[in-house]
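ERR on first pass: missing label on line 2. Operator R.T. fixed the label and resubmitted. Corrected input:
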Amino acid sequence: AKDQGRDTFRFYSEHLTRQAFQNVLIDSALREAVSRQEFRLAFQPQVNTDNGSLLGLEVLLRWHHLTLGTVSPSQFIPQAERTGLIRDIGHWVLEQSCLQGSRWIAEGLQFGHLAVNVSAPQFRAEDFVAQVRKVLADTEFPPEKLELELTESVLVHDTEKLIENMHELRALGVMFAIDDFGTGYSSLSYLKRMPIDRLKLDKSFVDHIVSDDSDRIIAGAVLALGKAMGLPVIAEGIEQEAQARVLQSLGCKHFQGYLYGRPMYGPRIEVVLRAHL
Ligand code: C2E
Ligand code: CA
Ligand code: CA
Ligand code: CA
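pass 2 clean. output:
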């Protein structure tokens, strides 16, 4: 048993070392990724199953590096948040999203809104509001078609400045969704003070909703909260019809997940947009 403990420890420390090494590689490669044009945007449909309409598209970042290969955002985003690089990356994502959106509008394609993920360090940057204003002006993207997805980690530091920034962006027409709702901090008091337009029920409550009573209870509570506060709730990570049916029975109308469409690059999502015309 003792030996086993030591092996476990050795495995653990080797794993840590490899992870640390990997992070150094990712960090230096990440610094070049924008200029080397290694990033691409993928777009995932958000649908209203009541009438089959397209509500919007969530923008998801993809990174293909020559030797590291395809690196998952759940690996490189947290890393970029630690180093602060997320601010440049996030700016690129916002700008490219709005550029793409404006091109689609010019082509007569309808996509509802574009939902762009914004990290806490990015949102808290001194010049974030000015940055959004400038991107909207430069790209001529209609602000009311932009939705920013914030996680509860952004909202937990609900300083005067943060709330002021949200109201300023809201005054332009920009909307806010709370991403991964229910997984962050238990305080809901920010819902009173902040201009929130939508809650996104986290995938972790959806995965086992067909078989797990507590997931069903939590999802039901989030949907009831949304209804009481007049906030639409979108359920994410729907893979099976059965999951959608349970959520529909709880009053959910808005969905996102592989069942309705995977994240797709420009050319493929355009096929979907044309089919919706
Ligand atoms: P998220 O914002 O919660 O995005 C949803 C994730 O679930 C995406 O993973 C999406 O591809 C995946 N997904 C959607 N439907 C399904 C489904 O039916 N089944 C399964 N198994 N997965 C599904 P992805 O693209 O790997 O992104 C992971 C996370 O990385 C995102 O989670 C978000 O937190 C972050 N991220 C991605 N792009 C950006 C970005 O441009 N900026 C920032 N700050 N974060 C980003
Ligand atoms: Ca998101
Ligand atoms: Ca999410
Ligand atoms: Ca998530």
